[in-house]
Amino acid sequence: MSLQPPSGDSRGIRISDADRERAAQRLHQALAEGRITVAELEERLAAVYAARFGADLVPPLEDLPGDPLDVTGSLPVSSTPAGPPVVLRAGMGGLRRTGVWQVPARLRVHSGMGSVLLDFCDAELPHPVVEVELQLGAGSARLLVPDGATADVDGLVAGMGTVRSKVPATPVPGHPHFRVYGRSGMGSVTVRHRYRFAGITF
């Protein structure tokens, strides 16, 4: 499939950053549904973020359900706001986010060998849906989500590691939902609620 924009002088009106983000969200949803691969997602996202006109969005979206040019009403109710992701990078010592912290709508985590701990249980979650993109090498990642929260990990591709989610995948109204996707090389990824034992949580 060619991702080149249609030729010609008339390609419609110019699109906004919000339109590009909504189109990107459709691609992430297609990945989670198994319609496209991670490699296809990356290629199509490049075309979406380079788009200037509505017609430029047709090639990366035309073989997916819905009207490729209908970027205004294509998102599910539990969609994340538009905006670039907050990028976190883990060094050799790893990365920890615990306690009270402000969780963005979109989070991208890069880790080569260090471990990652994202504890959302006491965090401020202003968005109903949080996207977490993991790009992991040999390190492992643990995502601790609040009681009642759900998580979809179908978009996370594991190499030699494992992916385990111990929470439901279907969103529940009134509770936060996490979309976890990306790549894991050799480490494991675990999504779960916090454990409680003898008054201690971990």
UniProtKB/TrEMBL annotation:
What InterPro entries is this protein classified in?
A: DUF1707_SHOCT-like
Pfam families tied to this protein: DUF1707 (PF08044)
Q: What is the lineage of its organism?
A: Bacteria, Bacillati, Actinomycetota, Actinomycetes, Pseudonocardiales
Q: Which residue intervals define the domain DUF1707 in the entry?
A: 13-65
Q: Which organism is it from?
A: Pseudonocardia asaccharolytica DSM 44247 = NBRC 16224
The entry's protein name is DUF1707 domain-containing protein
